[in-house]
């Protein structure tokens, strides 16, 4: 049985797509899958840093597509998580160096060797996007609860539908306090506008900054709300469709109940 190729895209940069790619790839590998994450952000390359593998790069996805090396040479094995690999992007080339046909061929080979191929798509809707989605089976659109991000996500969703790809949605960097005050779109607002299936809800989490700086995936960090959210997302991707959603919330309700109890005791004293 061949593996599945999934692209993670956004339309808008800066929404956490690379961190999500690393976290979902790591979480799927922890679910005992053979996983490769592929950085398609040619010319920039950040996925290797987020995964802590920047010092082990010899070959890149450009080399693999152009036949300079084979897949085994380009794929860097993570030393902490069994069966997790990275094929990095090239910093010295630009997006025009690759064609869709090359990515289709590469993905065909990767399907035979891995259960999941997770592609980190560059922001935008130009050639980098077209190459990244050329051979995918599924797409995940990452969006933050901001009007500009939702608008750009809607544009990307239209392009995916035009390619007969039905995307799913992850809402990232949710701040419950702002949602409760009405200063941030709720997940219901975002889902209503974009009208695609929800795959997961990820709260804003300072542990993600630590993860990015240290190269340790959030799913390996203890007490990381974002890491736990990405683990649940991976389980859904892996077939656990009945796993309930956990909506990021504040502890305001708990404190309110405690305050009421204290108040009642004081009145009765």
Explain how this protein is built.
By secondary structure, the protein is α/β, with parallel strands linked by helices. The chain has a single domain, classed as Rossmann fold (3-Layer(aba) Sandwich), CATH 3.40.50.300. It has twelve helices and eight strands. Strands 3-4-2-5-1-6-7-8 form an eight-stranded mixed sheet, with helices on both faces. It is globular and about 55 Å long.
Strand order of the largest sheet: 3-4-2-5-1-6-7-8
Q: What is the string of SSEs from the N terminus onward?
A: EHEHHHEEHEHEHEHHEHHH
CATH topology: Rossmann fold
Number of domains: 1
Which overall shape is indicated by the principal axes computed on the Cα atoms? globular
**CATH architecture designation:** 3-Layer(aba) Sandwich
For the biggest sheet, the summary is: 8 strands, mixed
Assign a percent range to the helix content: 40-55%
- SS summary, helix count: 12
Number of strands: 8
In CATH, the homologous superfamily goes by the name P-loop containing nucleotide triphosphate hydrolases
Task: Please state the structural category.
Answer: alpha/beta
Please identify the top-level CATH class: Alpha Beta
Oligomer: single chain
Mean pLDDT score, rounded?
91
Poorly predicted runs are 264-269
As a whole number of angstroms, the C-alpha radius of gyration is 20 Å
Strand fraction: 15-25%
Taking the alpha carbons of the first and last residues, their distance comes to: 70 Å
């Amino acid at each position: 049985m061949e593996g599945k190729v999934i692209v993670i895209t956004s339309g808008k940069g800066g929404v956490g797509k690379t961190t999500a790619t690393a976290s979902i790839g790591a979480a799927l590998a922890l679910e005992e899958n053979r996983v490769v994450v592929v950085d398609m952000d040619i010319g920039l390359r950040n996925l290797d840093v987020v995964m802590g593998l920047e010092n082990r790069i010899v070959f890149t996805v450009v080399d693999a597509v152009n036949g300079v090396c084979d897949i085994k040479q380009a794929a860097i094995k993570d030393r902490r998580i069994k069966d997790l690999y990275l094929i990095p992007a090239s910093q010295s080339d630009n997006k025009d160096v690759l064609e869709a046909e090359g990515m289709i061929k590469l993905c065909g080979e990767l399907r035979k060797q891995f259960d999941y191929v997770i592609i980190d798509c560059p922001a935008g809707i130009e050639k980098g996007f077209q190459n990244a989605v050329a051979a995918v089976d599924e797409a995940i659109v990452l969006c933050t609860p901001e009007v500009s991000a939702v608008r750009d996500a809607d544009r990307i969703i239209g392009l995916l539908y035009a390619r007969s790809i039905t995307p799913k949605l992850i809402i990232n960097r949710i701040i419950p306090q702002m949602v409760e005050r009405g200063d941030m779109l709720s997940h219901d607002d975002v889902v209503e506008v974009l009208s695609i299936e929800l795959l997961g809800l990820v709260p804003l989490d300072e542990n993600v900054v630590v993860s990015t700086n240290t190269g340790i995936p959030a799913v390996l960090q203890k007490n990381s709300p974002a890491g736990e959210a990405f683990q649940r997302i991976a389980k859904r991707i892996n077939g656990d469709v009945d796993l309930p959603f956990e909506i990021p919330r504040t502890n305001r309700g708990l404190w309110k109940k405690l305050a009421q109890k204290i108040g009642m005791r004081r009145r009765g004293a």
